Amino acid sequence: xxxxxxxxxxxxxxxxxxxxxxxxxxxxxxxxxxxxxxxxxxxxxxxxxxxxxxxxxxxxxxxxxxxxxxxxxxxxxxxxxxxxxxxxxxxxxxxxxxxxxxxxxxxxxxxxxxxxxxxxxxxxxxxxxxxxxxxxxxxxxxxxxxxxxxxxxxxxxxxxxxxxxxxxxxxxxxxxxxxxxxxxxxxxxxxxxxxxxxxxxxxxxxxxxxxxxxxxxxxxxxxxxxxxxxxxxxxxxxxxxxxxxxxxxxxxxxxxxxxxxxxxxxxxxxxxxxxxxxxxxxxxxxxxxxxxxxxxxxxxxxxxxxxxxxxxxxxxxxxxxxxxxxxxxxxxxxxxxxxxxxxxxxxxxxxxxxxxxxxxxxxxxxxxxxxxxxxxxxxxxxxxxxxxxxxxxxxxxxxxxxxxxxxxx
Amino acid sequence: xxxxxxxxxxxxxxxxxxxxxxxxxxxxxxxxxxxxxxxxxxxxxxxxxxxxxxxxxxxxxxxxxxxxxxxxxxxxxxxxxxxxxxxxxxxxxxxxxxxxxxxxxxxxxxxxxxxxxxxxxxxxxxxxxxxxxxxxxxxxxxxxxxx
Lengths: 409, 147
Known about the structure:
The complex is a heterodimer of chains A (about 400) and B (about 150).
Chain A: E1 3-8, E2 20-26, E3 29-36, H1 56-61, H2 68-83, H3 89-117, H4 121-142, E4 151-152, E5 155-156, H5 162-188, H6 190-196, H7 204-209, H8 215-218, H9 249-273, H10 297-309, E6 339-348, E7 351-360, E8 365-371, H11 373-384, H12 393-399, H13 404-408
Antiparallel strand pairs in A: 1-2, 2-3, 4-5, 6-7, 7-8
Helix pairs in contact in A: 2-3, 3-4, 3-9, 3-12, 4-5, 5-9
Chain B: H1 2-12, E1 15-20, H2 26-35, E2 47-49, E3 57-61, E4 64-65, H3 69-78, E5 84-88, H4 89-94, E6 104-106, E7 116-118, H5 125-143
Parallel strand pairs in B: 1-2, 1-3, 3-5, 5-7
Antiparallel strand pairs in B: 4-6
């Protein structure tokens, strides 16, 4: 059988980012796939030698615009660990809220792009319409749509007023309603299932051996999520990962769809349980005295029931109550220089994000190493591609939610 | 007369092609957001196409690096004239926060001529739409249609 080599990318309509795949095909079947990377490599890790450790927050936020908040969170937690800073509990909750809002917008973005990959353009438009509401929340609370830049070393830069929390809950209630209307289409529509079920199979063993991360891993039946380790406020919110057992593109899209709904619930829980207090500790500052308690099953039920009884949330399209952004207490001065090393992990929308940070007592970091989830998910992608139809390649490539600018930094 | 009609069509319905040139995705998702129901650039006749040979306007996001500067030049050369280039975001304009990184060449104008600069990190969808409208003025001048 004659073999043909077909280039896929770097500029391809289905990919928002430049990824090049050299596909060897026999008739319509892919036999081998070889990736070529490096089109968006900038060399951000080395910038830590020029920028000081506070300025690096702005650099790591721009590793990836889609999950910028979580990059900054991971970096700040690492520096806080080195410098021995205890973050106020309210700041931890605020970090959780913005982190989950970021996960929602990222998953909605992906669900739209995934629908576009199998040619369902109206579904793409629907998901992006819902996503704009999340973007509005971020703009109203942080002042920017995409790069929210709320994390600082020692806490967060902004606070949420009670009116803003109320408004966020209203907006999320509308989003949840709209999202549930789409669940029939993305999860049980005949044509959608034809394109996703059984496409891009990654067995449970393969997912483990190849080191998959995030929804790619959870779609193959592994209940593993870094949020289980309880960073930020997740330890108190009773978080449980979402798992699907289909091992195919459909399972991965179902994981992301259900995680979006779960994120809405997590934001609600975090708003309901958010304690009063400071939003940022002075670095090398005082410890909080109250001891945190994890959410109990009864408390979670009460919060959700009270929420469901509250009819104010229904059909409200009021503008945000206060457009003057309430500024949180920003740590007046970061005293001292980081000396030591730390490894921190957070759950990005795409999977496990790992930072290794090493300071040497000067204002510049000696080393910042970033390991991103798409880097972990490329070997599983190459295992999924051989044997598939050429027409399924866009669906399979998108099913790992590739973020090339994360991978190449 | 036929030429006049084509030129009118060019101004009323510009086709854009988007190239991610080492951006952090922030500007790319804002370019995509322009297509979606809230901003909906198709109501102005602006259509996003995948093929540079069909396009009148090139939207470039992100910094240029050593590897993709050839790809960018290639895409620019494939576009038929008259054409306009829009650099989107702080990175596309000057290199932004990445300008001192070792693999970064700088702004888009280091490689191809840029007509409109849209600042912002990331640039807002309204600003991107405004940039496309400003680029059309440039195309009008090239066509000798300035009134």
